[in-house]
Design goal:
About 35% of the residues lie in helices and about 35% in strands. It is α+β, with helices and mostly antiparallel strands. It has 2 domains: about 120 residues, Rossmann fold (3-Layer(aba) Sandwich); about 160 residues, Tumour Suppressor Smad4, CATH 2.60.200.40. A hairpin with a 2-residue loop joins β5 and β6. The longest helix has 15 residues. Bound molecules: adenosine-5'-triphosphate.
Length: about 300
């Protein structure tokens, strides 16, 4: 049985419009399916878990953005059962879709998932009892994610199909507010100390924040987390590194360092906000580990 989880507000209402567009195609294909709409925080996760446990669903197709992907994959993980995953991208950033080459045309995307055209397994990142598919970040990027979420300009920019720009505006607004802290990270047992850290991001895919190539070398099925740390940089240096992130050329910036690991802990003197796939999930300290080949997805 196939279950659809539709986030009607993803991409500023794109989720609802896209569902209305693909529903006839789904019915036309003769698929037997159930469909549920999300209602807010934690809803995608709860719906996914319920569909699997109570309705015998073994393939869930999310219609939404990265937050919806995050919720559904957590619901699957919490169910402890095997359930395949597909996505019809309908968010503002759509980083998961971009990284996995999922079709941007919703009808093509849903047909590919229903016909099981291409299946692959991807790693997930476990953190403090949750999983993430894209990235987990602490510090400035989590603060930017919160600001973007709460921003009125996000909805406005989405209307003009400029959702990715919302993140850039938030970066500029949060720059002066952010208070840096010293950070201690352990990567597979190696202790790394950083002064005045701006951010630490562990990535499973290269891009986040609507197309920024934070860890250009990340591969979703290699069993490794690629970690990017920006520390000891002035606001000007951070901005210069930030401008390069879109091209992935920040990797040569002297205040940016990279690591690769499977088991990671992050502690900060001052608690840092933490995001998983762009959704705020708590504060430091955090403990992470890779779950290799954890999830089957259709692309
Ligand atoms: N019915 C609803 N009303 C209000 N908020 C909702 C509803 N359903 C889900 N949400 C919220 O939507 C957020 C997830 O949105 P999602 O990330 O899928 O889209 P997006 O933010 O437009 O895209 P992206 O993350 O790709 O930039 C979650 O934080 C969730 O709480």
């Amino acid at each position: 049985m196939v279950g659809f989880i539709v986030n009607p507000v993803a991409g500023n209402g794109k989720g609802k419009r896209i569902w209305e567009r693909i529903e006839p195609a789904v019915s036309g294909l003769g698929a037997v399916f159930v469909v549920r709409e999300t209602s807010g925080d934690g809803s995608a996760e709860k719906l996914a878990k319920e569909m699997i446990e109570k309705e015998g669903v073994n393939k869930i197709i999310a219609v939404g953005g990265d937050g919806t992907v995050h919720g559904v994959l957590n619901g699957i993980y919490q169910s402890g059962q095997s359930c395949k995953f597909g996505l019809v991208p309908a968010g503002s950033g759509n980083d998961f879709a971009r990284a996995h080459g999922i079709a941007t045309n919703p009808v093509v995307a849903v047909e590919r998932v229903l016909s099981e055209t291409a299946e692959k397994r991807i790693d997930l990142m476990w953190m403090n009892g949750r999983v993430a598919a894209n990235s987990i970040g602490a510090g400035f990027d989590a603060q930017v994610a919160r600001a973007t979420d709460q921003a009125k300009y996000k909805a406005w920019l989405n209307r003009w199909r400029l959702g990715g720009l919302a993140y850039v505006i938030s970066v500029l607004r949060e720059l002066r507010k952010f208070q840096r802290s010293n950070l201690v990270m352990q990567v597979d047992g190696q202790v790394i100390k950083m002064e005045a850290a701006w951010l630490v991001t562990a990535a499973n895919i290269p891009n986040y924040g609507g197309g920024m190539k934070i860890c250009p070398m990340a591969v979703a099925n290699d069993g490794w987390a690629d970690i990017c740390v920006v520390s000891n940089a002035s606001c000007g240096e951070l901005l210069r590194a930030f401008a390069k992130i879109y091209f992935g050329s920040h990797i040569h910036h002297p205040k940016v360092s990279f690591y690769r690991g499977r088991q990671i802990t992050i502690e900060t003197v001052r608690p840092y906000l933490v995001h998983a796939d762009g959704e705020l999930v708590g504060e430091t300290p955090i403990e992470m580990k890779m779950l290799p080949d954890q999830q089957a997805i259709f692309v």
